[in-house]
């Protein structure tokens, strides 16, 4: 017998869970290094514009599909497109993206827990520069038992929440994890801002240098806005499908976007003052958190404790995102195949762990195994972030704007909502029909061929 479909127990539960999906490694690991590499405040400005003109309207479109159909991505597209095989395949692409993203996201997430453990063990207590931290990182990440062990632990953590379902598992977890995460970030921001010399970092974040902006900045910012809001693969669609039709959707979406943006900005506020206070350069790329930060904590008062808090923060942020990724897959199998949630959770967990092994070993035993010059890990990230997600985003906008159509979408949008001025609805229509698909297509083409 089919299980009865679960729903969010409260509006705030939905908002925290969706914000939890959005807030992840994208905000705390990727955003600061992108800001660092692309000119500080100028990048932030372009990023905010992208969030407003593409992120917000597409998020609204994606959640609306789920809320209207009350089904997993494949089921939702099937229902709203009248069984069109093309659109069903678009839903399927989301499930595929869920598998691919989880396979490598779990590895970085596992490292974060590993770094909590290593910080407690004192592994970083006597290092003084990024080169030494880099060596430790190299040693740890290339050790198969270390990487695979923490990857397995992370998959188990995600499974243990998915296992309990939407309102008992995901919602309860989000209600605990999100406030803890926000508290941690505030503690770290205050620590960063009270270091001597922090002003330089603050100025870097506030004073835009427009000469640093070019077409590439825009493409990077749009891609980041997209990944950060968990768009294009059905995670938000699935979360929307557990939402009742009497919630004011545009208002909730707004709150999710604001929370996600605030956390990215706070992550910047936590990094740059601390980095400049230590006289380090911000352009460190993806290695920023694993190479630059561990020694940096040694030179600030009570740094050891803050180091533990920092990696715990990252792990928690990653966890609320992996939960949403795994729920996309779980929702699909429980609804379409009549298998119990518990069985599916176990099977999907094992499968994702196995799928992640080649990516995990990309930093050690399999580091020489490359295709198109990329390791397995890089290939998975490229395939998901640069192909599946943007393509999903383009298709979701086209679906709502043209296939399902605004005449049908808007009344569903207004279910449970206050009166919204027609002008706002018209703006949403223009953004979904034209602006989003065109702009995301630029990013897509650039990332593939640029
Ligand atoms: N938004 C998450 C982050 O910023 C990543 C993510 C992408 C999660 C897609 C779910 C779906 O880390």
What can you see in these coordinates?
The chain has 450 residues and is an all-alpha fold. It has a single domain (11-449), classed as Up-down Bundle (Amino acid/polyamine transporter I). The protein has helices at residues 11-22, 25-37, 41-69, 73-80, 85-121, 130-141, 144-162, 166-193, 199-206, 215-228, 235-240, 249-277, 288-298, 303-337, 341-360, 376-414, 422-449. Helix 2 (25-37) runs antiparallel to helix 10, helix 7 crosses helix 14 and helix 9 (199-206) crosses helix 12 (249-277). The protein is globular and about 60 Å long. The chain starts with 10 loop residues before the first helix and ends with a helix. The mean pLDDT is 92. It binds phenylalanine. Residues 21-22, 24-27, 101, 227-228, 230, 233, 235, 321, 324-325 line the site of phenylalanine (PHE).
Quick summary:
By secondary structure, the chain is mostly helical. The protein is built from 17 helices and no strands.
Give short descriptive properties of this protein:
450 residues, globular, mainly alpha, 17 helices
Strand tally: 0
Residues in helix, %: over 70%
Shape: globular
Number of domains: 1
CATH class term: Mainly Alpha
Radius of gyration: 21 Å
Protein topology:
Blueprint: H1 11-22, H2 25-37, H3 41-69, H4 73-80, H5 85-121, H6 130-141, H7 144-162, H8 166-193, H9 199-206, H10 215-228, H11 235-240, H12 249-277, H13 288-298, H14 303-337, H15 341-360, H16 376-414, H17 422-449
Helix pairs in contact: 1-8, 1-12, 1-14, 2-10, 2-12, 3-4, 3-10, 3-12, 3-16, 3-17, 4-5, 5-7, 5-14, 5-15, 5-16, 6-13, 7-14, 7-15, 8-12, 8-14, 9-12, 10-17, 13-14, 14-15, 15-16, 16-17
Phenylalanine (PHE) binds at residues 21-22, 24-27, 101, 227-228, 230, 233, 235, 321, 324-325.
């Amino acid at each position: 017998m089919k299980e009865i479909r679960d729903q969010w127990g409260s509006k705030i539960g939905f908002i925290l869970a969706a914000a939890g999906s959005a807030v992840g490694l994208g905000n705390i690991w990727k955003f600061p290094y992108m800001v660092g590499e692309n000119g500080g405040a100028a990048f932030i400005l372009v990023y905010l514009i992208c969030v407003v003109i593409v992120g917000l309207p597409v998020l609204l479109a994606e959640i609306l599909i789920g809320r209207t159909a009350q089904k997993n991505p494949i089921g939702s597209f099937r229902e709203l497109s009248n069984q069109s095989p093309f659109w069903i395949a678009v839903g399927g692409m989301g499930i595929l993206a869920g598998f691919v993203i989880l396979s490598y996201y779990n590895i970085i997430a596992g490292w974060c827990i590993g770094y909590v453990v290593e910080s407690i063990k004192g592994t970083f207590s006597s290092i003084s520069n990024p080169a030494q931290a880099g060596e430790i990182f190299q040693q740890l990440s290339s050790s198969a038992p270390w990487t695979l062990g923490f990857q397995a632990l992370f998959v188990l953590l995600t499974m243990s929440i998915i296992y309990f379902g939407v309102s008992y598992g995901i919602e309860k977890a989000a209600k605990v994890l999100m406030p803890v995460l926000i508290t941690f970030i505030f503690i770290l921001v205050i620590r960063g801002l009270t270091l001597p010399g922090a002003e330089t970092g603050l100025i870097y974040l506030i004073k835009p240098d427009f000469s640093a902006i070019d077409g590439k900045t825009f493409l990077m910012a749009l891609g980041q806005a997209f990944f950060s809001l968990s768009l294009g693969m059905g995670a938000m669609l699935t979360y929307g499908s557990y939402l009742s039709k009497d919630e004011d959707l545009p208002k909730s979406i707004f709150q999710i976007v604001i929370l996600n943006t605030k956390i990215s900005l706070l992550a910047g506020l936590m990094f740059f003052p601390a980095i400049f206070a230590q006289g380090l350069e911000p352009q460190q790329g993806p290695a920023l958190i694993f190479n630059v930060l561990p020694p940096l904590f040694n030179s600030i008062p009570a740094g050891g404790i803050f180091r533990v808090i920092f990696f715990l923060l990252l792990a928690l942020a990653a966890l609320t995102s992996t939960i949403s990724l795994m729920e996309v897959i779980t929702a699909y199998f429980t609804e379409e195949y009549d298998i119990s949630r518990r069985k599916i959770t176990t099977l999907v967990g094992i499968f994702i762990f196995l799928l992640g092994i080649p990516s995990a070993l990309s930093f050690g035993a399999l580091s020489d195994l490359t295709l198109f010059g990329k390791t397995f890990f890089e290939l998975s990230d490229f395939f998901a972030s640069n192909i599946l997600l943007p393509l999903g985003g383009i298709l979701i906008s086209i679906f709502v704007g043209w296939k399902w159509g605004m005449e049908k979408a808007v009344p569903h949008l207004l279910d449970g909502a206050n009166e919204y001025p027609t002008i706002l609805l018209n703006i949403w229509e223009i953004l979904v029909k034209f602006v989003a698909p065109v702009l995301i297509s630029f990013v897509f083409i650039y990332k593939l061929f640029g």
